[in-house]
Amino acid sequence: MLDPQLLSQYCDTAIMAVHLDSETIIAANPASETLLGYPLAQLIGMKIADIEVGLQDVFFWEDVRQCGAQEVLHVESEYRHQNGQFLPVSKTIRVVQQAEGVICIISASNIGASKRLEEESARSSSLLAATLESTVDGILVTDLDGRIINFNHRLTQIWPWQIQTEAKISTLLLEFKTQLQEREQFADWLTDLYHDPYLEDKFTCSLLDGRVYEIATCPQQYRDAPIGRVFSVHDISELKATEAALRIARDQAQTANKAKSDFLAHMSHELRTPLNAIMGFAQVIEADDEGQHQILGSYIHKAGQHLLGLINEVLDLASIEAGKLALRLESINVAEVIHDCIELTQFLAKDKGITIAAQPIAANCFIQADQRRFKQMLLNLISNAIKYNRPAGKVTLFVTQEQAGHWRITVSDTGVGISEQDQRKLFTPFNRVGDAQTQIEGTGIGLAFTRKLALLMKGQVGLSSEVNVGSQFWIDLPAALAPDSAIVALHTPSAITTDTRTILYIEDDLLSQKLIQNILAKQRPQYQIFVAKTGQEGLALAHQLVPDLILLDQQLPDATGAMIYEQLQLNERTCNTPCIALSGNTLPEQINDALRTGFSAYLSKPVQISQALLTIDQVLSQGKHIPR
To answer: Residue limits of the PAS domain (predicted)?
Structure first.
């Protein structure tokens, strides 16, 4: 038969026998030695009070002495190890009556590991609870059946109804659904979630009171298996309100930009159309008359050119402000542009007794810029240097490399100079400083326009000036490599046809009609011209005449030029008739739109007679597209 002592000898639980009267340990198993660190020989005979250090243990033995022995099951206590450390234990005390008296059998196990696990678990739970409570989102946890397991305080703040654990989420959301604008979509979404426990998704819902919630959900898993769902509820009402305000602001900005574009197109046409007649007839007078009339015609033409320049400055500045100015950046030879600008301003300088010259320029001086606009900027600075100079003064142009990757083009004059106070206002549109306000012609927008152009080309404009000494205005622009050599073929237009040709001119402006009629009658008498004042009248006349060419104004009283062109293309009799667009609108996108529509060429008002005749001759003789 198995010796019962073997059971205690090989048991991992410490077992000690304590004599009740003496409270002395009279027996112990090897596990007791392992637990407490005392050799068995030393342990036997020790007082139990030398080992037990818990306050409840002191009370226990006191109660035993007064009331007798009593059993204790699975209570926690602390034992003192031989090394002085305290050990958390779980113990059970059973009472046995023996011949030598009452014996208490104590079985004890070290629960230090489990206590550490409990403490770590409590710490993790506390940290999780603190995290849930500190989040700005409402958190809701359910099991797979939709029963509410947990939620944080934030959810009760943003959720409009009372929440209770153990309640079904379906009951909670039934109330919520009644307040939604997207009721059916929300119900379908919720059904999909509980049909697929692995599904992660979001739903944005709008309440009838104007609040907007974003509800996100993901599965709660344990050992890779779903055990429930976690919902986060985020109040995005302010975000949606901000987005709506931004959309309104964007729409308003787009409307404003469109209004600017429409204004530019309209004003360009309205200003250039009467100027077309003024400059056109002035050219006719210059070409046909002699003596006094020819001189007067030249005066009119020069005044018209000046007015055209002012109009262009205003419209160009407005184009930049509206973001409608298109640039064509390329590698430009600075020396060539400076040479051209000096030639163009030589007469103005000579009239005022001003000497204008350029210092030698490096052969590798190329910049990345729009050539037409760069020339426009430079001409503006040179003309200012001439206008605001002293009698017999000087204007000098030179180029330096002030910083790597940029060339600085400087225009220096010997004028009266500009005070520091005036320099601060110099680049403000329509602001003309000093005596220039009344004594010298100009709009006060040239420098502002020049600076904006430079910024668009990744450059800068600046100045240095000293009163009674002179000023230096400079343009910094990015350096560029010299362009590759290219063979440019020169195309000579075909000979002017002597055959009779029919031209239909659809134009509502009477003076513009008379101008084209006068030009063609005197210089192209073989071209027979017919005029229509409206789009519909022009369509009828085109169908009747089937002309060789149609000149079509782009802004008619009853339709745009593009609309009339489309109608012409739908008619079998006129679908192959070439059309030339005429307009005072010179915005690049408007010109490109017309050419993409199918117009053979585009003439900007006020028209130059030579350019207009050349374009008409080329289209009639070749039927080719002539952009401008």
So the answer is: 124-158
Q: Cα–Cα distance between 47 and 16 in angstroms, integer?
A: 12
- Judged by DSSP in three states, 34 sits in helix
User: Which residue, 98, 107, 102, is CA-closest to 28?
Assistant: 107
User: Could you tell me which CATH class the domain 330-478 is placed in?
Assistant: alpha beta
pLDDT for 495: 47
> Considering only the top CATH level, what class is 4-115?
alpha beta
Spatial contact of 316 and 325, defined as CB atoms under 8 Å apart:
yes
Quick check: helix, strand or coil at residue 554? coil
CA distance 421 to 140: 66
Q: How do residues 177-208 score in pLDDT, each as one tens digit?
A: 777 888 888 888 888 887 888 889 999 888 88
Residue 443's pLDDT is: 40
Read out DSSP for 165-221? TTSBHHHHHHHHHHTBSSHHHHHHHHHHHHH-TT--EEEEEEBTTS-EEEEEEEEEE
CA dihedral 162, 163, 166, 170 (to 10 degrees): 90
Q: Both ends of the chain: CA-CA distance in Å?
A: 121
Contact status, residue 46 vs residue 32, Cβ threshold 8 Å: no
Per-residue buried b or exposed e for 144-154, using 16+ beta carbons within 10 Å of the residue's own CB? eebebbebbeb
Residue 88, CB half-sphere, CA atoms under 13 Å: how many? 10
Q: Tell me: domain 126-239, CATH 3.30.450.20, correct?
A: yes
Q: Which CATH class is domain 501-623?
A: alpha beta
DSSP 112: H
- The angle at the Cα of 438, spanning 437 to 444, to the nearest 5 degrees, equals 35
Within the chain, all domains assigned CATH 3.30.450.20 are found at 4-115, 126-239
Residue-by-residue DSSP string for 321-386: HTT-----EEEEEHHHHHHHHHHHHHHHHHHTT-EEEE----TT-EEEEEHHHHHHHHHHHHHHHH
- Residue 332, φ and ψ in degrees, nearest 5: -125, 135
Task: Collect all residues with Cβ–Cβ distance below 8 Å to 405 and sequence separation of at least 6.
Answer: 478, 479
- Tens digit of each residue's pLDDT (9 = 90 or more) over 224-278: 888 888 988 888 888 888 888 899 988 888 777 777 666 666 666 666 677 777 7
Within the chain, which residue ranges are assigned CATH 3.40.50.2300?
501-623
The tokens for 161 are 């109804």
Please list the residue range(s) of the chain that carry CATH number 3.30.565.10: 330-478
Sheet of 460-466: strand order equals 355-358, 394-400, 406-413, 470-478, 460-466
φ and ψ at residue 434, rounded to 5 degrees: 60, -150
Question: How would you label 163-201 residue by residue, b for 16+ Cβ within 10 Å and e otherwise?
Answer: eeeeeebeebbeebbeebeeeeebeebbeebeeeeeeee
